[in-house]
Amino acid sequence: MSEASLISDILKTSPSVELLKLRNREIIILFLYKVFYMHRDPVPYESLRLQLTDYLSSHNLENDEENDISVFDSYEEKAYKYLQHWTDKGFLRNYQEESGEVFYELSSYTSKTIDWLISLKREEFVGTESKFMNLFAQIKDLVEFTNEDPAERIKILEQKKQEIEHQIQKIQAGEDAMVYEEYQVLPRFREITRSAKELLSDFKEVEDNFKTITKAIYQKHAEGEFSKGDILEYTFGALNELQQSSQGKSFYAFWDFLMSPSMQNKWDAMVGSLYEALDSKQMRHDDMFLRNMKNYLYSNGKKVYQANDKMADKLSRIICENENSPSMASLRVIQDIQAVLLQLAGENIKPDLSLELETLPDIALPLERRLTMERNVDVSYDKVLEIASADISDAASAEKLFVRHGVDRAVLRQRITVSLKKHKQVSLSAVVEENGGLEKGLSELFGYITVMREFRHVIHPDKTQVIEFNSEEKKSIVVPEIIILK
After folding, report:
1. CB 251 within 8 A of CB 297
2. Residue 324 pLDDT more than 70?
3. pTM higher than 0.85 for the full model?
C-alpha cells in the first residue's frame, strides 16, 4: 500500500481522526485528558459516569446530534449515551475485573491523539541542538551495530576508548568536566518524557493484538465450521506470528528488561538522580511522569498478559467441551446467535433487540426473606440423622458436583520455580515429567504455558516436544520446544 493510500485509509477509518472531527471535540477531548491522561489509571464505570454527568452539567451541554443526545435527556442519560458511543467508536475501551466491576481506560487511538495534540504546543524555544545530537547518536549507534566486520568494530571501540581516556586525563589535569547547560537539559528532558508517554500507547497496541486473536477464536468457535484442531492451529499460528513480528519481539524483550530487579533498581536510581539534578540547578519542570513511569508500564504490560490469559482460558474451554453432552443443542443455538451478532459487529450494526411479553411476568422468589415484623422462631433439632450405608463415591451423578478440570496456576508456578532451583534451565516437558505428568489434561498444559510467560524463556519453533495429556487413551500433543531459564 502506498503512503497516499495509507493516509486516505487512516482519514476514513481511524478513530483518532473521527475524534478530531467531532463537533464537540474540545469538550470531549478535555474531559478524557483530565480524567484519564493526567492520571493514567483505569476508572470504574460508576465513578466515570458521575464525573461525566457533573462535567456535562457544568458546561451546560444541551444537545449533540452526532451522539443521539437531545435537550430532553437528563445529564445522567447524556453521560450514559456518551460512554456507549465513545466505546463503540474506539475512543475508550472497557474490561471487567474478576469482581465483576467494569473499568474504562483510553484506547491507543485516543492516547496517540492527545500525545499528538500536546506535541503541537509552541515551545519557549526549539531545542535544535538536542534534536540534532539525538539524531547523530542514533545514526552512530546504527552504523556501529549494523557493521559485521570484526576489524571495523574493534576500530570503533578503540576510538571510544581513546575518547574516554582523553576525558579522564583532562579531568585529572584539573579541567572542568563538560556539563550540560539549561538550554541543553530541558529539551532532552521533554523529549525523554514524550517518548515515555508514547511507550504506553505501544503497550496498548500489543494488548489489542491479543484481543484480536481472542475475538477470532470466539468467531471461529461460534461459526461451528471449524474443528478443535483448526482452532488450535489458527491460535498457535497467530501467536507465533505475533511473537516473531518486530512488535512482538520488541515487547517481550522490553518486558524481560522491565521485570529484571537489577534494571528496575538502576532505573529508579537514574530517574531519582535526574530529578535531583534538575531541582539543584533550579530548572523549572512540571512533568513528573518519569517518576511513576515504571508503575504505569508494569500496569499496562500486565494487561497484555491478562489478555493473553483470557485467550488461553477460552481456548482451554473449547478443547475441554464434551460434544456428546445433552446441552450441546442449546450450545449450538447460542453459537448461531453469537455468529450473527459477530457478523453485525463487524459491519458496525447495532441490532435493536428486545423481548416482548404478552402478560406481566410472574416473579417467584421462594428463597427471598419476607418482610415481616414477626420474630424468628428458633428451631431445635432433636433427631439424630442416620449414616447412609452407601459411600458418596457410589452415586452415579456425584462426580458432576465437582470441577474436574480446574487448574491452580499458583501450583504450576511453584512447580516451575522448584525446577529452576535444581537446574539453570529446564524444558516444559521436563517440568511436566518431574511432577508426574498432566493430571488434568490439556487444561493443565495450557495453564503451564500461561504461567511460563512470567519466567524468562526461549521457544525453538524448529524443534518439537511430545507431551502426553491422557495416559489411559495414550493421547499426546506436539508443541514447539520451550526452554525456561533461571
Report:
1. no
2. no
3. no
